[in-house]
What does this fold into?
Amino acid sequence: MDTPDLEIVAAGGLIHRRWFLAQTAGAAGLVLLRAQPALLAAQQDVPPWMKAPGQPLRPYGERSPHEAPVQRIVNSVPGTTGSGSARTPLESLEGMITPNSLHFERSHSGIPEIPPDQHRLLIHGLVDRPLTFDLAALSRYPLASRIHFIECSGNSRGLYAAQPAQSSAGALHGLVSCSEWTGVPVGTLLQEAGVRPNGRWLLAEGADAAAMSRSVPIDKAFDDALIAIYQNGERLRPENGYPMRLLLPGWEGNTNVKWLRRLKVTEAPVMTKDETSKYTDSLPDGRALQFTFPMGVKSVITSPSGGLKMQGPGLYQISGVAWSGAGRVRRVDVSADGGKTWAPADIPGPVLPKALTRFRMAWRWDGGPAVLISRAVDETSAVQPSRKAFLDAHGAAHSYHFHGMQSWGVSADGEVRNVYV
Ligand SMILES: Nc1nc2c(c(=O)[nH]1)N[C@H]1C(S)=C(S)[C@@H](COP(=O)(O)O)O[C@H]1N2
Ligand SMILES: [Mo]
It folds into this structure.
């Protein structure tokens, strides 16, 4: 199946990213991955689904029943209703967009069932004119559409464990998803309300039973914050904040307040329960950092993934996602030998700021043990740290904002496992 002109760029069989260009350009000397010999006879048989008309048209789409095993990974806190999270099965998805039905969910007190005509957003506090908006009013403002990830700052927390947890990419890292969000820039609404000169922060409050609330510096609101009312073209899903949520691109998931009902302009942070009891970062000297807003530069290999089995030696396409709360992903390096040698992955694009970015790398697996790692670099030149470097810098009590590298060990029998290097 292989041809001799594969350009090996790093140990363990990593192949130069030019290989992808050659493939998509249809260049001569194509290296076919897994094409089967033509089964002409089989194509001449008329399958049952060609012998009668198919299913009726549907008013709202459903995926193929054969894809039903692709599910969010649900973990609710025992003894609560709806408190917990459901992770995106990253290993089952491709590209950069998360379908709405598989966007991760994280809720502190269940998903409120909100009739849109009974929901209001109030803007008050240090403003000249307090204002309220309903969904219909918001929908008439000039809308902006932007593709951004949301990542919970508790994502990848499993990597703090002393022993590597045996999980899939989604179970480990699936508290990140990426959508096209459409809504009204928060700055537009604040301008209409007229922020007083001493207005420096916003209190954002949700309409759930937790009244989840966070303080947000007002500069972020005027920079790129949205009141999102559409998600991938349709209205938000209830679990993602219907009818409206705050979207703070690149900032820790928790600040993206769902079911948004109030923005109060204040002089200083309000110190809500959600920002004092959680989401602070312990330091090795016992102190703690509060308000770590942008999410660090990060990448995850989603294929292969823990829990999957390799199909024998040969050519594979390593695939993964990278992102940064600081802007665009500039480069992703991949290693197949546990970090001794690296080569840049192919980034086919689009590459958008604060959005999941797909990378791929061709790999000839020789059937021996290998350790696959990815490392992202963003446009500010921030480099994703190794797990060890991240833990050394933050100390044992830290439990949020993990963005160190993760490694998949591939054994000779084809098992893929989370390993520490
Ligand atoms: N009102 C409200 N907003 C909320 C939450 C919540 O429980 N209530 N959870 C927060 C957390 S911790 C995260 S990570 C994100 C998750 O957004 P998603 O559920 O749309 O993925 O929403 C945030 N906004
Ligand atoms: Mo979160």
Q: What stands out?
A: The first helix runs from residue 18 to 24. Residues 298-419 form a domain with the Immunoglobulin-like fold (CATH 2.60.40.650). Helices lie at 18-24, 40-44, 135-138, 169-173, 186-193, 218-223, 273-276, 387-394.
